[in-house]
Amino acid sequence: MDFYFNFQLYFHFILKESNHPEDNFITAKPTSEKISRHISYYYFHKSFDEKYQKKFIFYPNYKHALTVYRNSEVFLSDNESMVKPSKLFFLKPIYCINKDKNIKVSIEGVFDKIGIVFNPLGINHFIKKSIQDVFPYEINVFPHFGEEFNLVLNQVFLENEIHKKVELLDAFFEKKIQPFDESILKKAIGEIIVSNGGIKVSELSEKLKINRKSLLRLFNKHTSMSVEEYRKMVMFRQAFNYFQENKDTVNLTEVALFSMYYDQAHFIKHFKSITKETPNSLLTKIQHLGLEDTYWYFED
């Protein structure tokens, strides 16, 4: 078992439902031990309200998501997606690698969406090529599992019981597992996450006995990021999550120290470079959906 995935709860099904007048959001963990090593959780988000209209923003995360919309037109740009109902029956899978920006999603009308949230390097265990080859952009249309995936997704959308949705998805991904033996890269990412992004690239190179250029090539090929970009993304996300999980008991200085920033000023500068807002102005407006680490900011 890779040590940086030890936080996963194996053989344990966890479900959390967030109900609002306009929509429904449910999270559930995989029940397969094999799959829970690579997929953190699934979520199911839908609305039957024809007048539904919301805009939300999500932020950099080392857990990346494959989201699938059913019967929706999805319009993509570099930092925004717009979702509207379609009269045609089709599925739209989208994979997002958000390393350093806030990305806005605008949804209008009826929609039905499945989210598959991968652990670090999780998606690499299900694709035959490298991340660099498969995903040229930060927001990508994802056709790589083909018609077999579409057939399973249709079953999942039609199934009403959450545990059966999970079983269908687990079974599909169990058949799709590919060898991914980049042990140095796995150890490097584990060290970065365990240190909350605090470990320097030079320290990482020395600890793993690999030169910096070779380490950079591994990161570029399999994460589409440099080592430094990955490290900064982890620092940001660890701070972001830590505040949300402890917001009644911690202040910004404590959050900054936990996430290995030099000081509060360093934390604020980095945070503002990504979100365009200070931590004080944004963090208290974030909403937690489900039981996992899905934190979105819904615009008024």
TrEMBL record:
Pfam families: HTH_18 (PF12833). Residues 175-285 form the HTH araC/xylS-type domain. Keywords: DNA-binding, Transcription, Transcription regulation. SMART domains: HTH_ARAC. GO terms for molecular function: DNA-binding transcription factor activity; sequence-specific DNA binding. This is AraC-like DNA-binding protein. It comes from Flavobacterium dankookense.
